[in-house]
């Protein structure tokens, strides 16, 4: 089935304990990274077509330092410290394993990019201007590319807590999605 045959997608922010438990369970059971609490400010979504649950997404605080992202933005250390809250990390994206629909992943990514700024504004009283995500290099990130996310480089495989190069992690592709045409100017202000 094509994603267009599903009808309109609804992005429901998780706001009840019941929905939170469902989201946690789905991610823990079916996402290859499993469940971990999202850092900082966050929004988790359950994605439906009519009453049919299709997917779960989680967005949280951005990574502190990511060379490809920081180079793309062009900000200084002080600008990054002031404006990093305007970058939101897509930490989890799961289409449920029994859902098969061509182009659904890119359709979900495009739809959530339209809705997230308004939901974030309602919850946190400011609107992000850039989305980021990290995709393990064993995956091509095709759905992100199809949804017009920009591949800007790769991580160094150190992780956010490795200050002394003792904990090598898998290298990941860095994808960005500007939510505004002037996102770089805003982030460098």
List the helices and strands and how they pair.
Elements: E1 9-13, H1 17-30, E2 43-49, E3 52-61, H2 67-73, H3 77-83, E4 87-95, H4 104-124, E5 130-136, H5 142-146, E6 150-154, E7 172-178, H6 183-187
Q: Can I get a quick summary?
A:
This protein has 6 helices and 7 strands. It has helices at residues 17-30, 67-73, 77-83, 104-124, 142-146, 183-187; strands spanning 9-13, 43-49, 52-61, 87-95, 130-136, 150-154, 172-178.
List keywords for this structure.
189 residues, alpha+beta, 26% strand, seven-stranded mixed sheet, Aminopeptidase, 6 helices
Characterize the structure shown:
With 189 residues, this protein is an alpha+beta fold. It has one domain: Aminopeptidase, CATH 3.40.630.30. 31% of the residues lie in helices and 26% in strands. It is built from six helices and seven strands; from the N terminus they run βαββααβαβαββα. The chain has helices spanning 17-30, 67-73, 77-83, 104-124, 142-146, 183-187, and strands at residues 9-13, 43-49, 52-61, 87-95, 130-136, 150-154, 172-178. The chain has a seven-stranded mixed β-sheet, sandwiched between helices. It is globular and about 45 Å long.
